[in-house]
Amino acid sequence: MIMANITTMSGFLLMGFSDIRELQILHALLFLVVYLLTLAGNLIIIIITTVDQHLQTPMYYFLKQLSLLDLSFISVTVPQSIDNSLMDDGYISYGQCILQVFFFTSLAWSEVAILTVMSYDRYAAICFPLHYEVIMDPSKCQWAVIAVWLSGSVCGLLYTTATFSLTFCKAKIIHQFFCDIPQLIKLSCSNDYLAVIGVAAFISMMTFICFTSIIFSYIHIFSTVLRIPSAEGRSKAFSTSLPHLFVVSLYISTGMFAFLNPTSESQPAIDLLTSFFYAVIPPILNPIIYSLRNEAMKAAFRKLLLGGQFTRKNAFLFFCC
């Protein structure tokens, strides 16, 4: 019935991963586990980097912002997908789809921006250690974070406005688990794609600039690290840099692959797999990479588990931040 009436409805039908009931339940359970693990991991990082006085540095300040973004990013798509699978109803209203596109694109760009800022922070810390406190003073860090969130909002507004200026006249069936812009464009019968192409080109150019700056930062970082005489020092520097570079490369490459081929006739399974890699994997990978491989984070987490070592003042600061 839904398939028959979807062309007359104002909303869209999200096909998800399968129309087999048993697989829908399995998908919902797997996504629920992933979501809860992501929430737990990122919340732990946010709490620890807020209340532990030893982690009040720019690196952990940006890490907290990344965790906030990851927490929000995965919450835009995964809970809706879990609900659709459990209810065996992929319908999403037009308004919900607009909001999902806006928050998804806003947070997606904000992730690119914060990862760029984090790479610059590592570059300053490793290449200019004596001037690090001047380069990354608290006021500059705060302005950088404000720029990250504001630029994300502008990006989301531009992309959402351009996408929903199109007319959707084809069957409103989206072969995705969320309102993905490339899939939405496939449903359009408009001949004027100038606005969408313009916004996509602008954001792609900015993403390329960010990615290039990240690569240049790491070229300088690695050249500096290789000159460190201590093997332990080189190992410590690489342990904080390589995981960050891996997450950046995975996130940007899969995202650009999907968004630069909006009209391709690729298989739905490939589209689903690609979107899974840029919409779900990074938020769950970041807590693992930045906590399990970081001795300071592990020590702070042990203190948190033991309890009583964070003061009431720190707890108050956490709820105020």
UniProtKB/TrEMBL annotation:
Cellular compartments per GO CC: plasma membrane
Alphabetized PROSITE patterns for the sequence: G_PROTEIN_RECEP_F1_1, G_PROTEIN_RECEP_F1_2
UniProt key word Acyltransferase: no
Alphabetical keyword list: Cell membrane, G-protein coupled receptor, Membrane, Olfaction, Receptor, Sensory transduction, Transducer, Transmembrane, Transmembrane helix
Cellular compartment(s): Cell membrane
Residues that span the membrane, as ranges: 28-48, 98-120, 141-162, 193-221, 242-260, 272-292
InterPro entries registered for this protein in UniProt: GPCR_Rhodpsn, GPCR_Rhodpsn_7TM, Olfact_rcpt, Olfactory_GPCR
Keyword Membrane applies: yes
Membrane topology listed for this record: Multi-pass membrane protein
Pfam family, one: 7tm_4
One GO molecular-function entry: G protein-coupled receptor activity
Regions annotated as coiled coil: none
The G-protein coupled receptors family 1 profile domain, residue ranges: 41-290
Family note: Belongs to the G-protein coupled receptor 1 family.
Protein name, per record: Olfactory receptor
Organism: Chrysochloris asiatica (Cape golden mole)
Gene designation per UniProt: LOC102837388
